[in-house]
Amino acid sequence: MVRANFHTHTTLCDGESTPQEMAEAALDNGLLALGFSGHMDRDIHMHWNAYVAEIRRLQVEYRGRMDILLGVELDTLYDPDCCPGAEFRIGSTHFVDVDVPCEAAVDWSPEKLETLCRVAFGGNWMALVRAYYELEAMTHDRTECTFVGHFDLVSKFNEGGRFFDETSAAYLSPALEAMEYLVREGVPFEVNCGAMACGVRSQPYPRRELLRALYEMGGSILVNSDAHSAGLLCAKLDEGARFAASCGFKSALVLEHDARGGVAMREVPLEG
User: Fold this and answer.
1) Fewer Cβ in 10 A, N or C end of the chain?
2) Residue by residue, what is the 3-state secondary structure of the chain?
3) pLDDT digits over 196-247, tens only?
């Protein structure tokens, strides 16, 4: 349905496949556009100049066959000036801002998430959730992102309500407040299929209640795989598009180079 992906990781950050392998897989799967988006955050950060050189090389190699874009996944708590020349930015919140010595990432493992909640928030899951979404609301202000990545990443290991109830008002209220603020800023959100493709979640990010709310707020979306290997580059993209359509969306955005070499957004239908 959407023949593009703009959330792609490689061996230059925490991925399993090289940029060349990812580009070959994209072409083999019929993608018209591929956006590379290596991590730049306080846990994983690339050698930026080497990354730029390799993606620029691939842009030349695939010119006329597939549009390749040089992007970055920039964490809300990382230096926004670390990625000169990036053609697009994904603004993502992987960490919460805490003042106690502990691992502050929300997406490493269930065990580390439990430890973070206990050590930094006294075991209060809703306090952790509120801290996450308060920071998530600042993603665009801090990163000047092109779109928001995996909006509700704090729920990655919460399948089946393992730690908290994602349908409760206590959870949804701070999430919707952050979403509404970001929508007012005009920033699109991605429908991220990565955790679903890996079998960690049964829904994309954002989950159904949040994605329906995004539609009702007049928000816009991209559909991405957040792939870390060539074999998963297009995994669940069609399912993610159907999920978005079931929440009301009729179209998604894609990025592309315009005639002057800049990057523009264009709407494509989700079905038909």
Assistant:
1) C
2) CCCEECCECCCCCCCCCCHHHHHHHHHHCCCCEEEEEEEECCCCECCHHHHHHHHHHHHHHCCCCCEEEEEEEEECCCCCCCCCCCCEEEEECCECCCCCCCCCECCCCHHHHHHHHHHHHCCCHHHHHHHHHHHHCCHHHHHCCCEECCCCHHHCCCCCCCCCCCCCHHHHHHHHHHHHHHHHCCCCEEEECHHHHCCCCCCCECCHHHHHHHHHCCCCEEEECCECCHHHCCCCHHHHHHHHHHCCCCEEEEEEECCCCCEEEEEEECCC
3) 999 999 999 999 999 999 999 999 999 999 999 999 999 999 999 999 999 9
